[in-house]
Amino acid sequence: MVRGKGCALFDASGKEFLDFTSGIAVNCLGHADEGVARVIAEQARTLTHTSNLYHTEPGATLARKLTATSFADRVFFCNSGTEANEGALKFARKYAKTRAQALGKNAGDAAWETVSFENGFHGRTFGALSLTWKEGYRAPFAPGLPGNTFTPYGDLEKARQVIVKGRTCAVFVEPVQGEGGIYPADAEFLRGLRAICDEADALLVYDEVQCGLGRTGKLWGHQLIKDAEPDMMSVAKPLANGLPIGAVLMKEKVAAVMAAGDHGSTFAGGPLVCAVANEVFDRVSDPAFLANVTERGNELKSSLTEKLAGHPRLREVRGAGLLVGVQFDCPTAPLVAACRARGLLTITAGKGDILRLVPPLIVSSAQVQKATDIVKECAFEALR
């Protein structure tokens, strides 16, 4: 690929593609956005990097916006989603140790184990990888970080059996699973997890790296469900429309246990990337923008359902907002290849049996219809 504009990508031969991957759910404002380009140029002439030894106005402003629109009181900036989950792991262990000491126990007796869910994806560095379900990602690098237990997504009774007071320090869950297969959580599940974590004195951590910041039609994915706020939340992918940034949002009770130097990152929260993130956040958080995401997402799902009706290998169309999966009873790699040949970029998810569609959040109705026409043509030809 050599250039892009909006929802279009162009390769070195000049071929144009309709991009329904958006850099794996990153380029929420599309490619070569004028507002983003303007902010990059202006900030590059002012201040690019200081390290996180110092505060900067773009970083402070972004932190205020993130906390003002969420459950959180504090923010720790990093450079990716996997770094955000690594940070959350550290913060959860420090919180558990501090709680144990406050109760007169030895820090060594504090809870330190974690729970995550089948089909979940949380990153590829060692701590985050240990939370990630797919064996193929973990096995080549085993043994990973000890102490994590996997349990079925959506099953509260089994979750209750493995979230244990005095043993579990944190529970990691995606409100909408992305890499694992586009599975939205239901209200009972997330509310139940909140109650179980409260009973066990464990922190509830939402991974919204893929489903957060407007992707579902809500600013935060868990806002599809009321009364299920987390203690921490990891965000990253779309926050700076392609520049590397991540963040851990947390309640004050978690932030309060962290001392200066307990965690850090040389590049985190730099003024250039935070300036861009402010531009992205202001536009994505606009109610009219989010309403359009919901409308286009509903159109995408209904159009796929209609056009793929009668396909013998189709199992389900599901998703939330513009995070949509089409499940077949066979591998979808041939469908991805056929779509690419016709000028539509898509990706897989789950066990390779799901076609994942995550277009830029600025996608138009005409582009949705063009994409679903191509998926229909290719599915009936490539998947028989």
Give an overview in words.
The protein is an alpha/beta fold and about 375 residues long. It folds into two domains: about 5-30 and about 285-380, Aspartate Aminotransferase, domain 1 (Alpha-Beta Complex), CATH 3.90.1150; about 35-285, 3-Layer(aba) Sandwich (Aspartate Aminotransferase, domain 2), CATH 3.40.640.10. It is about 40% helix and about 20% strand. The protein has 13 helices and 17 strands. The chain has helices spanning about 20-25, 35-45, 55-70, 80-100, 125-130, 135-140, 155-160, 185-200, 250-255, 270-285, 285-305, 335-340, 365-380; strands at about 5, 10, 15-20, 75-80, 115, 150, 170-175, 175, 185, 205, 230-235, 245-250, 315-320, 325-330, 345, 345-350, 355. The strands form four sheets. A seven-stranded mixed β-sheet has the order 4-12-11-10-7-5-6, sandwiched between helices. A hairpin with a 2-residue loop joins strand 1 and strand 2. Helix 3 (about 55-70) runs parallel beside helix 10 (about 270-285) and helix 12 (about 335-340) packs across helix 13 (about 365-380). The longest helix has 22 residues, at about 80-100. It is globular and about 65 Å long. The two termini are about 30 Å apart.
What keyword list fits this structure?
384 residues; alpha/beta; Aspartate Aminotransferase, domain 1; Aspartate Aminotransferase, domain 2; 2 domains; seven-stranded mixed beta sheet; four-stranded mixed beta sheet; 13 helices; 17 strands; 38% helix; 18% strand; globular; N2-acetyl-L-ornithine:2-oxoglutarate 5-aminotransferase activity
